[in-house]
Predict the structure.
Amino acid sequence: MTKAEIITEISSKTGIEKVDVQETVEAFFKVIRNSMVEGENVYVRGFGSFVVKKRATKTARNISKNTAIIIPEHFVPSFKPAKTFVEKVRSGNTASKTSK
């Protein structure tokens, strides 16, 4: 499902104009993005957590040149789904697979 499809579905289910839904969805993503850039984690109860993970400094190898490369410490965005969300996806997927 794409962002456009999400906006269309929310608009049809709520009766809110697509333009307003699009602005809201874009604002939601912008808030999450900006919070994570600043190092803050975002927790959405029942859905999951958008967290910033720290990757330690490590040594890697450039195979073509046969040299060692130091990869500095860096941070990466990550998503951890809530337990209830994971359970709903698992139960939903097994039910849809058996009914096909």
